[in-house]
Amino acid sequence: MVIKFQKNDKPVKITGAKDMPPMPAALGSMLQNKTGSWRNVRPIIDYEKCIKCFICWKICPEPAIDIVDELPVINYDYCKGCLMCMEECPKDAISYEKEGK
Amino acid sequence: MVIKFQKNDKPVKITGAKDMPPMPAALGSMLQNKTGSWRNVRPIIDYEKCIKCFICWKICPEPAIDIVDELPVINYDYCKGCLMCMEECPKDAISYEKEGK
Amino acid sequence: MKKTMMGNFAASWGAQLSRVQVIAAYPITPQTLIVEKLSEIVADGELDAKFIKVESEHSAMAACIGASATGARAYTATSAQGLALMHEMLHWAGLARLPIVMTNVNRAMAPGWSIWADQNDSLSQRDTGWMQIYASSAQDILDSTIIGYKVSEQVLLPTLISFDAFFLSHTVEVVDMPDIELVDKYLPPYNPEYKLDVKDPRSFGALTAEEYYYEFRYKMQEAMDKAVDVIKEAGKEYEKLTGRAYKLVHPYRCEDADLILVTSGTIAETTNVAVDELRAEGKKVGNLRIRVIRPYPKKEILEVIKGVKKLAVIDRNISPGYSGIFSQELKSALYNEVNIPVRSYIAGLGGRDVKIQDIKDMANDALKNDSPNDLIWKGVKL
Amino acid sequence: MKKTMMGNFAASWGAQLSRVQVIAAYPITPQTLIVEKLSEIVADGELDAKFIKVESEHSAMAACIGASATGARAYTATSAQGLALMHEMLHWAGLARLPIVMTNVNRAMAPGWSIWADQNDSLSQRDTGWMQIYASSAQDILDSTIIGYKVSEQVLLPTLISFDAFFLSHTVEVVDMPDIELVDKYLPPYNPEYKLDVKDPRSFGALTAEEYYYEFRYKMQEAMDKAVDVIKEAGKEYEKLTGRAYKLVHPYRCEDADLILVTSGTIAETTNVAVDELRAEGKKVGNLRIRVIRPYPKKEILEVIKGVKKLAVIDRNISPGYSGIFSQELKSALYNEVNIPVRSYIAGLGGRDVKIQDIKDMANDALKNDSPNDLIWKGVKL
Amino acid sequence: MIEIRMHGRGGQGAVKASFVLAEAAFQGGKYVQAFPRFGVERRGAPVEAFTRIDDKPVQIRSQIYNPDGVIVLDPTLIEVVDVTKGLKKGGWILINSDKKPEFYDFGDDYKVYTVDATEIAVQNRLGSRTAPIVNTAIVGAFAKLTGIVKIDAVFKGIDNSIPRSQEANKRAAKQAYDAIASR
Amino acid sequence: MIEIRMHGRGGQGAVKASFVLAEAAFQGGKYVQAFPRFGVERRGAPVEAFTRIDDKPVQIRSQIYNPDGVIVLDPTLIEVVDVTKGLKKGGWILINSDKKPEFYDFGDDYKVYTVDATEIAVQNRLGSRTAPIVNTAIVGAFAKLTGIVKIDAVFKGIDNSIPRSQEANKRAAKQAYDAIASR
Amino acid sequence: MRLTIPEREIMTPGHLACQGCGGSLAMRYALKVFGKDTMLSIPACCWAVIDGAFPYTAVNVPLFHTAFETAAIMASGIKAGLMVQGKDTTNVVAWAGDGGTFDIGIQALSGAAERNDDITYIVYDNEAYMNTGIQRSSATPEGAWTTTTPVKHYKKGPKKNIVEIMAAHRIPYAATASVGYPEDFCKKLEKAKNTRGFKFIHVLAPCPTGWKSDPRYTIKLAKLAVQTNSFPLYEITDGIHYKQSIKVKERKSIKEYFKYQGRFKHLHEDEVQHLQNFIDENYALLEMKLE
Amino acid sequence: MRLTIPEREIMTPGHLACQGCGGSLAMRYALKVFGKDTMLSIPACCWAVIDGAFPYTAVNVPLFHTAFETAAIMASGIKAGLMVQGKDTTNVVAWAGDGGTFDIGIQALSGAAERNDDITYIVYDNEAYMNTGIQRSSATPEGAWTTTTPVKHYKKGPKKNIVEIMAAHRIPYAATASVGYPEDFCKKLEKAKNTRGFKFIHVLAPCPTGWKSDPRYTIKLAKLAVQTNSFPLYEITDGIHYKQSIKVKERKSIKEYFKYQGRFKHLHEDEVQHLQNFIDENYALLEMKLE
Ligand SMILES: Cc1ncc(C[n+]2csc(CCOP(=O)(O)OP(=O)(O)O)c2C)c(N)n1
Ligand SMILES: Cc1ncc(C[n+]2csc(CCOP(=O)(O)OP(=O)(O)O)c2C)c(N)n1
Ligand code: SF4
Ligand code: SF4
Ligand code: SF4
Ligand code: SF4
Ligand code: SF4
Ligand code: SF4
Ligand SMILES: [Mg+2]
Ligand SMILES: [Mg+2]
User: Fold this and answer.
1) Chains touching chain B, criterion 3+ CB pairs below 8 Å
2) Domains of chain B: which residue ranges?
3) Which of D66, D65, D56, D25 is nearest to D42 (CA)?
4) What is the whole-number distance in angstroms between the Cα of residue D322 and the centre of ligand 10?
5) Which terminus of chain D, N or C, has fewer Cβ atoms within 10 Å?
6) D2-242 CATH fold
7) Using a CB-CB distance cutoff of 8 angstroms, which residues of chain C are in contact with residue E58?
8) Going by CATH, does the domain composed of D250-377 fall within 3.40.50.150?
9) Taken in order C219, C225, C227, C233, is the CA torsion positive or negative?
């Protein structure tokens, strides 16, 4: 199972008024916006410890944890590094390191 | 005891802008407006029956019943002829007749 | 079919014949009868619409916006304070480009409380992105409502139709009612490209950075420009069906006039009578009724007034600290184009009656005086 | 004393130095800092005032009206949507003739949501009976607030002081703060003749029949007319005390200009820089900043532009279906007076940056082209 | 063009009367206009309403200051309101009253008519004795006294503008048409 | 006139830094202007702020596109933001970093400086280790590298614009002033 | 001579209320209790007309006519203005109709209640928008005709429970009252006058014009509303302490109440029964809260 | 693999919420339950930004951004528009912040509730105006710092009890929820989805930016609010039937809750005790109502 988004996540090209609808109606998805760049710490899952409770998946507010092959997988394109997953993991299976190290 | 109104009840003379305040601030009292003219029936107190309970005075919505010399006295300048006093008088001391008879 | 009806009912008939689908309105004197009538019609099933009995005019406009955004035809009516209370949502409807049609009964703004005719309410909405029509008869009200939807839905801008309190709202007169079949032919169902639709999910009105906002405003102005032609076209088509012509401006005996009075609303109709009397006295006076002020019919006005010697504007409104608004906008439009002297009169604010004689007085004053004047208070008591 | 401060804090300082007594305000970007600062000052006892933390801007203005009606000095600040939500109450303050002073941070109207500079919010209040000032520096904001009360309390009309979002509101710059003693000398306590007073009980704003309403409007216009002189007088007096001159219009290098740019707000300041550069290139260009638009300074403008060959207006606003509003009002004022060609530009809507080069482009375009033009969209992406 | 003013009390139907009158004239082929005085009058307070009748569309949109005729729906008003205000010389006054026209003295400038519309309404069960609906009877009397509209047009007007008891209303109009007394 | 851009993250105080910088320059007798990028950036997201410094009042009120120098408050931003965008040729880049300037490669068009403002802030107990307040240290470094303001003016600026721990802040500024490394 | 309510008259005759107006009577009582050191904030409602037209007024206290939705905040603004001038004693009273309170004014009301502003808010409830000609408000009782709830489609859904809403705001004092019980009403006004913070009084004020009743029955109806438990009289302090002020021994049938009103006459027997049940249920809920 | 909440994701990552935003999480859950046949009305609030800027959006359902005070009525208008087009099934959800609900939007909310419009209104409560930078709202709890209730003059007076106010409107369904209890929240969403008429859900959504908390503690705080009885979780049907959905066996001390938040750190011991008492009293009042 993988998160799927039905909206096209291609960037929208607008060169001027002619490419725009009459009112600000969305033409694409915020998937364009890679919020991974906001992160200053990077959560890391230790799959040894992980018991697949998916609490981390459940409470990620982005959501930036996918479930791939029955495992929680952090999507670093979007993870903002809030560390909620780390805090809530019942098995302390998530740790973090500073970004840019 | 007579009802007294502290506002001057003289008519206000306005011939134009110069007589007016900058904003619509009242200059006189609605006592100017003799609502007796609205009346099509005229309540009449039968002082023989009256027990001076002053219920009529108490419930007149204008108020158009004064208390003069310990008696309820209808002020026909203002009484609109609603007949609430008649209805509420515990002694049926108030009756009415048609106006303009 | 000819019928007698009040101006207010002409508005509700206009909405009914346009088959409006969502009505959200709030009572206010002198608009109340429109709302009462529509709530009755809807309750009785004579109109297949949903009537939302909102708790304020602000909500009335918001509800119309929501309904219109789903592709439904939305209608409301209000007056004065009610219109003013909608102000933020008027901008919203405009920028969201929703073809709502609204009736406004022109009433003076408080304080002091006044329920009488005065155009300040609607004219102080002139910058909100609505098309604006000033009707001058019950017939005009009814027809303009239908035409309003026709135009609005083509250019994606809302339309405000205003008319004077009591002088029209509560006045019974003869109206020729178009058949519903005819209206159906004229006004097809509304089906916009962009709407709230779960099959095509979009957000509307999100944060719009400096990168794009400017262009949305540009597109809005483009639509206003286009509306001039669309209004003409829609008027002509309506004329074909009903014989009644509606234009942006309605000149009366202007061709050879020395003086043209520029008027709107009910004063414009009384002015026609005054013009006839003045003509009978040998004075070459015409009357130019401005029916539409947004989009502003600059070219159309220029065409009419080009040769005239003098102009006199009668405004039942004022922009405090400037002048009458029709006067202001007219003079701005004429600047760099012609240099005809304009005398501008304020009259009829707060429901003060503007009689035939008053109009003749103003005309005579303008005929006599060659100097332009921004602001003459007709009949003010000093 | 000179200090660095944000435009927003210049506004709160202006209010504090004016010893406002009742503040009722509601937060909105980019005005928020004004409110936060004032609520702090009041909480800390640095200003002896009551701060009402209202639930909306509509209520903010209503509370100011109530307070002002008792004879207290009332203040609020807002922006865009908040100002629009007050609209009905703006008319109220105007017609009730209450000398409230309000700060408005000019921000674009939604939708789409925009928090960036744009004058449509305040200009669409131009018909509500408020005096309107467009400030172009933090110094101007602070000083105008003080002068605003001075003028308002003399003519009994409220004052709106607007300035551009971020370009001023969030920009730190150097401001010369007048001493409180000096301000006290300049601005005496407010003590109106008509106010809510149990010793002199009156009703305010009652039903006003056609017999009187018209004259109240007339008196309001009279006050606006008078305000022109009062503003000049108050500006001169302020200059005496502080050395800083404030007028209705601020010409810059206009005396011998071939072309005068007509500007307002922050664009006006950048235009001064552009004018210097153009002059250095040998082009005789001046800048006329319109600081006050209500009352409209017709005479003052005419004086400045009388001899010039060309005019170009730059509007960070538009009345949809007409043109830029400064342009519209300027042309109307000039009609029947002069016939200088006017080219009108729209620029900077929704916070789009107007750079020195943009202004020079517009000036050069106006220098090159002799034909008047109502509406040129500077830099629109098509 | 003829211009008519009605006098009544708030809640008594004067405005409706002006409309019924207009409707009758319209059915008689005329152009019409009818409107209330633009006030905030309350139940019981004196109110006015107006009707204009013409052969061509009525374009004038100011109020009526010099009516050709006046209709008084409630005779008690005569004492508290100047019903002849602005009335043209030679104009008529139609009063709903059980009195003879002679009873009323408005000088010689006006013609006075009376009709006991209340009684007629009550007989035809239009409203109640305390709140009779006298619109249609008054219009019947008006038709007779002015000749501006035929009684048939009044009937058509009733069919078009009165939602219920049309027959009774027509009877009332006819009765008043026949009963009108003049001075 | 010199124009400076700051890069930081939402919540990190970049805007405040631009103000402190302006205040220091003002105390050094300059006219100044400082403002944030006009966005809606959230905590964690990259943000920018600007300062203009001039000898006469700053009248220009458009944004800064071609800064003379750039200050980077958080070195991790360098990977996600183009910090040299629009930077004038010959312009400088001041980075809060524990690395040597050589560590950063922006080509030859720019001068690069580093200062470990975080460490200096922490040493002076300005903020916490996870959220150090580096404004004043950065301004100290700026004073040294540009010479536009004297360190005394920086001190005065701190006295005026920093509500608490003024001495510690001055120490931090001085330390950074002394510690700046350039390439 | 013993009068059971204050003798002073501050409201004058000559005002513009209809014959038999409960709303004008309510004001008469309120001003009797509050006295001359009082200011009124009155929004659009019948009272905006009743007070009379410029240049006259029908009340001998300062009155600020204000926009429909602003009764509460206008009073708050006035109070603030007075306080900064040291005029602390003045009673500031917001006086509004049900429409201006339950509907368009509820936001300003809720805000003032939440801030616990030191004002008294009195809603005279005539159960519809009367000033504009009898349109439904959210105070219109189920079953009633109005011009926007025509006979065939009479008002559905119960009257909004404004007093409960105010209680949820935990204001110091809230009460219901009726012009049919002047002494009780006056006592509550007195309490409001002597309490600091936000006070709310909901007074039922029959309207012959809108209720299609004979003007003479205004008091009778105001009593019947109470006696049928349609409009029980009680007080709530601090949002939690409920006390009944007029106890009804044997509640009368709602039919008795409806009989004198045209606005209910279209109702069928079973509809009336339904309403009777609803009233009884509601009253039972209230009884549970009474202390 | 057993997931306790729906697996579908309708909200996309890439949105503009701060790190650890409870409000974005709340939306994620709501859309999971409501599904694709849903439309959102969102007024000014953090979510007006979180959704992203033109030309992009972060939700895969139609979303109408609307004026601050109009969340409820905009939803009503949308619902009406859909109904007349026969699109009856679509869930129309008004989604607003506490400011847009308790303060500036309460009038439109009250109106929609009174009309019993068929919409779901969800308020994500972060207890202040966050989008404009942390100003007090009437949902701000007593004792909290905000920029308009500075430390020395922290927020006085209790949080407005919006759920009680809605209950007084007698709406079919009202509930409190917390992002700390996703399963409970989802159950309530499901109930709302399956109920006709007006539904109201009040969900507590911690905001690290405004609460001055570490983003990682968002869930912890959302739980502690419940476990300390500061924010009890319950449901009210028809305005009168109260049911607790999460029972707290031993309530934790409020100190435990405050500990992780900067906005309360100025409070002295006795002030904290005062707040503790208030919470306990309030909870006792609620308990009396529970069925
Ligand atoms: C914004 C606004 N909308 C509508 C009105 C019109 N209006 C005036 S009074 C009124 C009804 C008032 O009803 P209520 O508050 O119950 O008082 P009542 O007239 O019944 O005494 C209405 C709708 C107005 N004045 N202002
Ligand atoms: C009429 C109006 N006033 C003020 C604002 C500014 N504003 C936008 S969002 C906001 C705060 C929203 O607070 P809340 O509803 O609690 O949502 P949050 O931001 O906390 O998520 C404010 C005051 C506005 N957009 N419109
Ligand atoms: S919360 Fe921890 S244990 Fe549970 S799935 Fe995530 S990483 Fe594994
Ligand atoms: S750190 Fe935060 S954003 Fe990143 S995966 Fe964990 S919960 Fe999601
Ligand atoms: S109510 Fe009757 S008995 Fe009592 S005082 Fe009046 S007239 Fe006399
Ligand atoms: S009839 Fe009515 S107005 Fe006249 S005295 Fe009796 S109660 Fe008062
Ligand atoms: S309509 Fe009703 S409330 Fe209004 S004045 Fe008349 S009786 Fe009183
Ligand atoms: S300020 Fe708070 S509610 Fe708003 S996006 Fe950030 S964390 Fe979420
Ligand atoms: Mg009412
Ligand atoms: Mg919030």
Assistant:
1) C, D, E, G
2) 1-33, 35-98
3) D25
4) 39
5) N
6) Rossmann fold (3.40.50)
7) 173
8) no
9) negative
**pLDDT tens digits for range D115-150:** 999 999 999 999 999 999 999 999 999 999 999 999
CA distances from D62 to B24, D91, D94 (A): 18, 11, 12
> Which residue range forms the structural domain that includes residue E171?
2-182
Contact A96, A81 (CB under 8 A): yes
Q: How far is CA B59 from each of CA B62, B87, G21, G27, G235, rounded to the nearest angstrom?
A: 9, 10, 11, 12, 23
Closest CA to G48 of G96, G11, G13, G91: G96
Encode pLDDT of F86-115 as tens digits: 999 999 999 999 999 999 999 999 999 999
> CB-side exposure of H198: number of CA atoms within 13 Å?
23
**Rounded CA gap, D270 and D260, in Å?**
14
pTM > 0.95: yes
Q: Which is it for the CA torsion D187, D190, D193, D199, positive or negative?
A: negative
Q: How far is the CA of B64 from the centre of ligand 6 (A)?
A: 6
- F105 interfacial to chain A (CB closer than 8 Å): no
User: Is residue D96 within 8 Å of C111, Cβ to Cβ?
Assistant: yes
- Domains defined along chain G, listed by start: 22-289 (3.40.50.970)
Is the peptide bond between D295 and the residue preceding it cis, with omega within 30 degrees of 0? yes
Per-residue pLDDT of chain F (183 residues; tens, 9 = 90+): 999 999 999 888 889 999 999 999 999 999 999 999 878 778 888 999 999 999 999 999 999 999 999 999 999 999 889 999 999 999 999 999 999 999 999 999 999 999 999 999 999 999 888 788 899 999 999 999 999 989 999 999 999 888 888 999 999 999 999 998 887
- CA C312 to chain CA centroid, Å, is 21
Which pLDDT value is given to residue B8?
58
Cβ-defined contact of A24 to D112 (cutoff 8 Å):
yes
List the domain boundaries for chain C.
Answer: 2-242, 250-377
Q: What is d(CA B34, CA H21) in angstroms, rounded to the nearest whole number? A: 67
- Search chain F and give the residue with CA nearest A81: F44
Determine the length of chain E: 183
How far is the C-alpha of C10 from the C-alpha of C137, rounded, in Å? 9
Chains C and A physically touch (3 or more Cβ atom pairs below 8 Å): yes
Q: In sequence order, what are the residues at sequence separation of 6 or more whose Cβ sits closer than 8 angstroms to the Cβ of residue G100?
A: G43, G44, G45, G68, G69, G71, G123
C-alpha count within 13 angstroms, C-beta hemisphere, residue G205 = 32
Contact: D112, C207; criterion CB under 8 Å: yes
Torsion of CA H47, H49, H52, H54, to 10 degrees: 120
Q: One digit per residue, pLDDT tens: chain B, 101 residues?
A: 455 444 457 899 999 999 999 999 999 999 999 999 999 899 999 999 999 999 999 999 999 999 999 999 999 999 999 999 999 999 999 999 988 75
Identify the nearest ligand to the CA of B99 by its number.
6
Residue H283 has a CB neighbour count (10 Å cut-off) of 16
Residue keyed to tokens 């928008």 = G129
Q: For residue G147, what are its two tokens?
A: 């011009």
Rounded to 5 degrees, what are φ and ψ at D344?
A: -115, 130
Complex-level ipTM: 0.98
Which fold would CATH assign to domain A35-98? Alpha-Beta Plaits (3.30.70)
Give me the CATH number covering residue E144. 3.40.920.10
Distance between C381 CA and the closest CA of chain B, angstroms: 4
* Ligand 4 site residues, Cβ closer than 6 angstroms: A 43, 60, 62, 64-65, 74, 79-85
**Number of other residues whose CB lies within 10 A of the CB of residue B101:** 7
Inter-chain residue contact C227 with D321, CB threshold 8 Å: yes
Residues with CB under 6 A from ligand 6: B 43, 60, 62, 64-65, 74, 79-85
| CA distance to partner chain B, nearest, from residue E22 (Å) | 27
The yes-or-no verdict on residue A74 having pLDDT over 70 is yes
